[in-house]
Each structure stands twice: as C-alpha cells, then as structure tokens.
Write a structure and sequence with these properties.
By secondary structure, this protein is an alpha/beta fold. The protein has helices at about 140-145, 160-165, 190-195, 235-245, 255-265, 305-315, 315-330, and strands at about 25-30, 35-40, 55-60, 60-65, 65-70, 75-85, 90-100, 105-110, 115-125, 125-135, 175, 200-205, 230-235, 250-255, 275-280, 295-300, 340. It folds into 2 domains: about 5-65 and about 165-340, QueA-like, CATH 3.40.1780; about 65-145, Thrombin, subunit H (Beta Barrel). Helices cover about 20% and strands about 30% of the residues. The protein starts with about 25 loop residues before the first strand and ends with a strand.
Length: about 350
C-alpha cells in the first residue's frame, strides 16, 4: 500500500485559516457506508443522524499554550515549543528549540516574567530536555506567557480568538499540543440538546502530540512508524461503552483521537479496558475495527495518517471520492474546517 495513494488535490483557498463564526455553524458531510451515499447538512443538525441510545465518546484533552518566545544571554531570539512534561518536580519538559544559531547544553533562555529555561541536553534527533525555573506556579505562568500552538498550515500567528476556539468546550485535562478538532464544532447548547434526545456522552483523554502534523516520509504505508501519545480511559467510560454495545447502540467516536484511543484499548471482542498508558496504534485500510461504529471527523491533510485512518473506516475509494466532492462543493478543510460523519 503506497502513501501516494492517499493524495488529493486541494485548492489553497479551501484551507480554513479561521473558525466559522459559530462553532456549530460549520457544514457537515454525512457518509453512509452501507448505501455508499453522501448527504450535506449543517453541524447544528447532527441530531438528525444520531439515534437515542448512541454514545458519543469525546476526547477531553486540553490544549496548552505550548509556544514560548525568549532570548539567549547574547540577545539571540529563541522559540520554545513544549512537547511533553517530563517531571512536575523540577518542571522539566521535552521540547523543540528554534534559534538562528543552535542552542548548546547549559544554554539559558530568558522568558517573560523572569522565568528562565535551561537547555539541559538533547533527546533524540530534534528534541531537547529543558528545565524551567523562576515561577512557583508554572501552569498559571504558562497560561499568561504562552501562545496557542495552532497548526503550521494556517500560515499565521496565533491570535487571541485561538485561545477559545482552538479548544473544545469540554476540554478538561491539560496536556495536548494540538486540538482534537472534530470536537471543536460542539457547543454546550448542542450537547445539552443531544442529551435530551437520549444521546449519551463519555470521555477519554488522549494528549495529542506533534506527531499529528508530521508528514509520512516513506513510500509504503506499512513502513511508517506512528508516534506515541499518552491516554487515559476512566472505568465509567469503559462501562458506558459496554452498556451501549449490550443494548445494541452505536459507539460514535468524536475524532480520530477518540477512535484511536478506543481501538488501542479494545480487546478482540470490542471490550474496552480502562486504564492509562501510551497509545501507538496505526490504523490504515485493512484494519478491522473492534469498538467504534460511527466516526465524526474533519477533513485531513493529503497522505496523512489521519486520512489513512478515515479511509480504513469508511473505505478508501469511498472516502477519496467524498473528498473530491467536498472540494467540488467548496467545503472548508483542516482544523478549523467543516466536518464529516461516517455512519
């Protein structure tokens, strides 16, 4: 299976660089796998495609303002991109460092509010271990000093609106450096309306990492090495999935991150194991889904692992033809774009 088989032509103007005026005002393309048909509606009317008893599984990770700007003692500018916290005890983080001249071990970087980051040592090919000092409440300082890590393909700097809109309304567990974007379309009112119609929700946590933006650099899909991301599945969520399956209701994954979390933790019979760890499941056509019955997602990058996952769920030919139709109908693509529901 070749990576180039997941390519498609996308006009630049269809990349959504800003969110829709209203979260649930985006468009929704609905794909029916059984009839091989597609429909178009507004996201606010997603209830028409859901049934009482359905279980929406949401990823409640919270995006941290992971991008920081500082300067060396020499005056050189440095950008720090936080990737994953290594230790709460001494505020050590795995991160990326970008500067005009490469940083060296022991380099001190001055940041806002008198906070200092020390580039301790390299980790792997690109990452650094950095240790922060100068604040008693790092998380509070980060909220003030950091910028939201909006995707590079937006081709703009983060703005104040991104602090709210590049975050789901149910985000609760800080740790992601990219948003689970399928959930960006929900409003509190819409979730309440769905609950009144007997559509339940349950949460998992998967802290989306930088790997979600990394291009696939191999020719064959099977040769790609997927990144690892921290996850947690509460016992009540595992029980909710079991109850839905018991009553014959659908498990609807809200986003590829929720989908990967459930599938990683699923036994062969679809039973979900509660717990936590690091998920590294790579889903592409040929994979047999065990836990997820329907998938809500956005429109993804060409040749990306996310498009491969969606193609595995909906059928590669059907999904790529739907993408061509989405381009023809001028749907908005990527993180701030429109949505697709595969039933």
């Amino acid at each position: 299976m070749l990576v180039k088989d997941f390519s498609f032509m996308l006009p630049e103007e269809l990349i959504a660089r800003y969110p829709a005026a209203e979260r649930d005002g985006s468009r929704l393309m609905v794909l029916d796998r059984q009839s091989q048909t597609l429909s178009e509606t507004r996201f606010s009317r997603i209830d028409a495609w859901l049934r009482p008893g359905d279980l929406l599984v949401l990823n409640n990770t919270r995006v941290i303002p992971a991008r920081l700007f500082g300067h060396k003692q020499s005056g050189g500018r440095v950008e720090i991109f936080l990737v994953e916290q290594q230790s709460e005890h001494d505020q050590s983080w795995r991160c990326l460092l970008r500067a005009s001249k490469p940083c060296r071990p022991g380099q001190l970087i001055s940041l806002a509010g008198g906070v200092v980051a020390e580039a301790v040592e390299r980790i792997g090919e690109q990452d650094w271990l950095a240790r922060f000092s100068g604040t008693a409440d790092f998380q509070n300082w980060l909220q003030q000093a950091g910028a939201m890590p909006i995707p590079p393909y937006l081709n703009r700097a983060a703005e104040e609106l991104d602090r709210e809109r590049y975050q789901t309304v149910y985000a609760a567990e800080p740790g992601a450096v990219a948003a689970p974007t399928a959930g960006l379309h929900f409003t509190p009112q819409l979730l309440e309306q769905l609950a009144e119609q007997g559509i339940a929700t349950a949460a998992v946590t998967l802290h989306v990492g930088l790997g979600t933006f990394q291009p696939v650099r191999v020719e064959r899909v099977q040769d790609h090495q997927i990144h690892r991301e921290r996850y947690q599945i509460p016992a009540e969520t595992a029980a909710a999935v079991a109850a839905a399956r018991q009553r014959g209701s659908r498990v609807v994954a809200v986003g590829t991150t929720a989908c990967r979390t459930l599938e990683y933790a699923a036994d062969a019979d679809g039973t979900i194991r509660a717990g936590q760890g690091e998920a590294d499941i790579f889903i592409y056509p040929g994979y047999r889904f065990k836990a997820v019955d329907a998938l809500l997602t956005n429109f993804h990058l060409p040749e990306s692992t996310l498009l491969m996952l969606v193609s595995a769920f909906g059928g590669q030919e059907f999904i790529l033809s739907a993408y061509e139709e989405a381009v023809r109908r001028e749907f908005r693509f990527y993180s701030y774009g429109d949505a697709m529901l595969i039933v």
